[in-house]
């Protein structure tokens, strides 16, 4: 696993066409904005984890 520190407005590229950017909301929360082709499936982790 690769662990990176990123500030709001900074991003990482995965391959040539997937961009993951850290954004900050008005509340001060940090969120991820993911720009990827429509044929790439993106699933939140809590959907995959079952107790």
From TrEMBL:
Q: Which keywords are on file for this protein? A: Bacterial flagellum biogenesis, Cytoplasm, Repressor, RNA-binding, Translation regulation
Q: What is this protein called?
A: Carbon storage regulator
Q: Which residues cross the membrane?
A: none
KW Repressor (keyword) present: yes
- What's an example GO cellular component term for this entry? cytosol
Q: Which GO terms describe its molecular function?
A: mRNA 5'-UTR binding
Report the source organism.
Answer: Clostridium uliginosum
Gene Ontology BP terms: bacterial-type flagellum organization; mRNA catabolic process; negative regulation of translational initiation; regulation of carbohydrate metabolic process
Query: Looking at the Swiss-Prot or TrEMBL record, what is one Pfam family this protein matches?
Result: CsrA
**Superkingdom of origin:** Bacteria
Q: Which InterPro entries match?
A: CsrA, CsrA_sf
């Amino acid at each position: 696993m690769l662990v990176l520190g990123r500030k709001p407005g900074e991003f990482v590229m995965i391959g040539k066409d997937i961009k993951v950017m850290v954004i900050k909301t008005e509340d001060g929360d940090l969120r991820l904005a993911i720009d990827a082709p429509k044929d790439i499936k993106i699933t939140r982790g809590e959907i995959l984890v079952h107790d």
